[in-house]
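An instance noted here:
***
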Amino acid sequence: MAQSQRHLRSMCKGETSGSGFEGVNSPLSSGANRNLINSCRIVLSMYGQKKIDPFTGAPVSKATMTAAYNIITAFNLIENQKK
């Protein structure tokens, strides 16, 4: 999923202070995490509107929609516990 790849690139640019859960849980990663959440919300919207995935050229699949939903859930939990 392209959104995950962008998130990983953001993390690799030094926008965090660790890797894995430590990195995602770092306050420095909140911007990248929020961008990932917002990108996944767009995927959910595209699925609901039966729009074409610009990366595959096909409609957004149920598997991609499910992955986006799970990412939103997980990263919202991570960001909410930082507060």
About this structure: The helical segments are 2-12, 20-25, 30-48, 62-82.
